């Protein structure tokens, strides 16, 4: 029975390793897509007031394409995250079964592996959350710049009218 439980913990450990690798890769790709979008927003913000409407539309098409790409990467990593959580659950059950059958080494090894992959995934998640925060900041900066730009355009006709009255 211990041999069978050891085989189960080995199998679940392999499954967990593979799903962890896939999840980390997917989160990394998502994070790269977020940084691409941040870069585009910042470039757009720096060009506000310097582009004609056609150029602005073209830039927005690129931004929209990058946003679609980012959303696609996010959906992929969320799908893989569900599979990864299943793999964690299976590994935890295998470790528990190993413990109850007296295969202590298999149980300890499985639990150590679970803790390791959880910390690895947590590190990558933190990096993606940091990127999401920077994206929100870039979007806010763009909105503020756009609002200021529109405010300046409205103020100019008022100033001209004021000067004409003198």
Automatic annotation (TrEMBL):
InterPro entries: Smac/DIABLO-like_sf, Smac_DIABLO. Signal peptide: none annotated. This is Diablo IAP-binding mitochondrial protein. It is found in: Mitochondrion. GO terms for biological process: intrinsic apoptotic signaling pathway in response to oxidative stress; neuron apoptotic process; positive regulation of apoptotic process. Keywords: Apoptosis, Mitochondrion, Transit peptide. Residues 143-166 have a biased composition (Basic and acidic residues). Its main location: mitochondrion. PANTHER family: DIABLO HOMOLOG, MITOCHONDRIAL, DIABLO IAP-BINDING MITOCHONDRIAL PROTEIN. Promotes apoptosis by activating caspases in the cytochrome c/Apaf-1/caspase-9 pathway. Acts by opposing the inhibitory activity of inhibitor of apoptosis proteins (IAP). Inhibits the activity of BIRC6/BRUCE by inhibiting its binding to caspases. It comes from the Eukaryota. Belongs to the Smac/DIABLO protein family. GO terms for cellular component: mitochondrion. The lineage of its organism: Eukaryota, Metazoa, Chordata, Craniata, Vertebrata. Residues 142-166 are annotated as: Disordered.
């Amino acid at each position: 029975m211990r041999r069978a439980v050891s085989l189960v913990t080995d199998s679940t450990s392999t499954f967990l390793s593979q799903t962890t690798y896939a999840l980390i890769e997917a989160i990394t790709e998502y994070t790269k897509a977020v940084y691409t979008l941040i870069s585009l927003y910042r470039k757009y913000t720096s060009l506000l007031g310097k582009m004609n409407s056609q150029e602005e539309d073209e830039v927005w098409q690129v931004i929209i394409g990058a946003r679609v790409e980012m959303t696609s990467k996010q959906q992929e990593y969320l799908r893989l995250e569900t599979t990864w959580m299943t793999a964690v659950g299976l590994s935890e059950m295998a470790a528990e079964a190993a413990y109850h059958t007296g295969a202590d080494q298999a149980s300890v090894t499985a639990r150590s592996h679970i803790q390791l992959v959880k910390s690895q995934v947590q590190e990558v998640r933190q990096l993606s959350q940091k990127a999401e925060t920077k994206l929100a900041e870039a979007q806010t900066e763009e909105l503020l710049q756009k609002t200021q730009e529109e405010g300046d355009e409205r103020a100019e006709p008022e100033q001209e009218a004021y000067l004409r009255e003198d």
